[in-house]
Design goal:
The protein has 110 residues and is mainly alpha-helical. The chain is built from 4 helices and 2 strands.
Length: 110
């Protein structure tokens, strides 16, 4: 019997990579891709565990799952730090005021 590729194994790996890259977008995209990857990986693991001799590509699933967990952690840190920054500086206007103050100090020092 010929072994076939595990369904979505390559897509799981790609989404795992995207979850790490997505942490740079305030954490939102990383969380989305991370959750999707974990759900797809769980389903692929169930399929593989039922009949492991029929499928290849399980290494992609494991790697994608690890990347998704790392991406979720990084994205959560990014999202929490963004929320804290908004709270501390008083939202977008507070951040703009802080930037203006920094620019004025830089101009004075020159």
């Amino acid at each position: 019997m010929e072994r076939q590729q595990l369904p979505n194994s390559t897509l799981i790996l790609i989404f795992g990579i995207l979850s790490i890259i997505g942490c740079c977008c305030y954490g939102i995209l990383g969380i989305i891709f991370g959750i999707i990857t974990l759900v797809m990986a769980k389903r692929a693991e169930e399929i593989y565990n039922a009949e492991p001799e029929l499928y290849t590509g399980y290494q992609n699933v494991k790697t994608g799952k690890i990347l998704a967990i790392i991406g979720l952690i990084l994205s959560a840190i990014s999202l929490i730090s963004t929320i804290v920054m908004f709270i501390v500086y008083g939202g977008v206007e507070g951040i703009y005021q802080m930037q203006e103050e920094i620019l004025r100090e830089i101009e004075k020092s020159q």
